């Protein structure tokens, strides 16, 4: 049995007629960096508020470190919550802010000072203890908020879009910083974000949410390379999604008819005529000479070229009318292909992913 720090079993939360969280079950392993990823309004915050005790599930159970949290108020749970809108005390110093929770708990002055010192080291602001919050940058404030949440040694730290207010550069720095802090303290982190890049950068596991349900849980590589639903394929990275029907089956490989194309893809457990989709990532598609011998091979014209330095993104209009996005690494130093050029594209069957769930 894997050791779970947090376990949700068939949890539903409704607000009047809104089903915010719909029969969700999952476990979070001890010491992992777990992300809840999904668009605005899909139920992420509601899950965090139920784990921390600020909301009660309409149905289902939540356990933390093996204990049922039913009827347990927030302040008696082994969790702490960090939001985007920091609840730091602006008129107090960094030290006073971090010490605040410990003083409420009781504890000797020397113990508190030692814990605060450790936290200042952890967030790499050892010289900043005497500064007032108002004298810190956005990123520094965010670190203090995290120190204040961690100083009481929660079993689980819940972070709800904590970097949302920071600009991109700082957010990227703080992502690495948070990951380092998590690795150092080993506390279970549950992180909410709508930003797929952020989730991929930081997480051991990602739960992709859509409209109150979890569509897939896995590590970043699993979710990117083997999306189970069309929503996941679209939400994580970019993809070409071909919606069609199973035309033929041949051993472990099937042919899907979609957008007037015949697409070969590995597939089992489907039947002829069944509605399916095939997801093909832009970087898995090759152009020109490299496409010539491939089973999935189509002719078209370059319609749009987006040069991105290390790579070029092409929009290719196939002869049958379908538009396909192709990403090519700029290994050579030459110029990209020009709009209007005739080109053949292709991909190996096993570069495609057959999707049978969550089709529209
Ligand atoms: N207190 C509430 N009362 C009514 N509806 C709510 C309440 N909290 C959340 N909701 C609704 O539940 C859904 C999920 O919200 P939320 O969990 O905040 O999503 P997210 O954090 O993913 O953006 C939304 O439709 C939202 O409007
Ligand atoms: Mg939210």
What does this structure look like?
- The protein contains 8 helices and 20 strands.
- The mean pLDDT is 94.
- It has 2 domains: 4-234, P-loop containing nucleotide triphosphate hydrolases (Rossmann fold, 3-Layer(aba) Sandwich); 238-355, Nucleic acid-binding proteins (OB fold (Dihydrolipoamide Acetyltransferase, E2P), Beta Barrel), CATH 2.40.50.140.
- Helix content is 24%, strand content 37%.
- It is an alpha+beta fold and 360 residues long.
- Magnesium ion binds at residues 44-45.
- Alpha-carbon distance between the termini? 36 Å
Radius of gyration: 25 Å
Give the C-level CATH assignment of the largest domain.
Alpha Beta
* Low-pLDDT residue spans: none
DSSP strand content: 35-45%
Sum up the overall morphology in one term.
globular
| Ligands (ions, cofactors included) | adenosine-5'-diphosphate, magnesium ion
CATH-scheme architecture of the largest domain: 3-Layer(aba) Sandwich
Question: How would a crystallographer describe the biggest sheet?
Answer: 6 strands, mixed
Please give the count of helices.
8
Q: Tell me the structural class.
A: alpha+beta
